[in-house]
């Protein structure tokens, strides 16, 4: 005897929503005219969270990709002047990646593009619905499992 997959429709909704979010964000990034891909945008945002320029291996680990993928992203961003490779001050064999002034400017513009994409995505929701969604997303991101017998 088989039981119906009660989470199947919800899983499909989540996948469809994720694809929609990516599509809308990609469109807003393209409309910014920066010539940055969504993956490059993610690398720029990640770089901005480091206190000092990270190594390529650090970026690969943080982005959860293979180092070769980071090399390709950095190559493109370096060619457009948004990042630069700099030698490590304590180990000349190590190369670090830092944002340039153009990279910082691009980040500001990309933040605007992401905010406008979020506004488009959230437009159908009331303020109360947005608060509920925010709480639900926090729970999903944190991965907290409610105790048995307790309600969320």
Describe the structure concisely for a colleague.
By secondary structure, the chain is mostly helical. The protein has helices at residues 8-31, 38-48, 56-63, 67-79, 101-122, 127-142; strands at residues 83-87, 95-99. Helix 1 (8-31) crosses helix 5 and helix 2 (38-48) packs across helix 5 (101-122).
Q: pLDDT under 50 segments (min length 5)?
A: none
Largest sheet: 2 strands, antiparallel
Which sequence of SSEs, written as H and E, runs from N to C? HHHHEEHH
**Gyration radius, rounded:** 20 Å
Overall mean pLDDT stands at: 91
Percent strand: 5-15%
- Outline: globular
Distance between the termini: 31 Å
Number of helices: 6
Order of strands in the sheet with most strands: 1-2
> Which structural class is indicated by helix and strand composition?
mainly alpha
Helix content: 55-70%
Overall number of strands: 2
Structural write-up:
The chain has helices at 8-31, 38-48, 56-63, 67-79, 101-122, 127-142, and strands spanning 83-87, 95-99. The protein has 152 residues and is mainly α. A hairpin with a 7-residue loop joins strand 1 and strand 2. Helix 2 packs across helix 5 and helix 3 (56-63) crosses helix 4 (67-79). The chain is globular and about 60 Å long. The mean pLDDT is 91.
């Amino acid at each position: 005897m088989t039981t119906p997959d009660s989470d199947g429709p919800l899983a499909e909704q989540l996948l469809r929503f994720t694809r929609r979010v990516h599509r809308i964000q990609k469109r807003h990034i393209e409309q910014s005219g920066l010539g940055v891909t969504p993956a490059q945008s993610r690398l720029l945002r990640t770089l901005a969270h480091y206190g000092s320029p990270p190594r390529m291996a650090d970026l690969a680990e943080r982005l959860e990709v293979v180092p070769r993928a980071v090399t390709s992203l950095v190559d493109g961003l370096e060619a457009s002047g948004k990042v630069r490779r700099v030698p490590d001050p304590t180990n000349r064999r190590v190369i670090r990646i830092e944002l340039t002034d153009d990279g910082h400017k691009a980040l500001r513009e990309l933040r605007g593009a992401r905010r406008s994409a979020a506004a488009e995505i959230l437009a159908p929701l009331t303020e109360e619905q947005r608060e509920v969604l925010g709480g639900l997303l926090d729970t999903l991101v944190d991965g907290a499992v409610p105790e048995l017998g307790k309600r969320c």
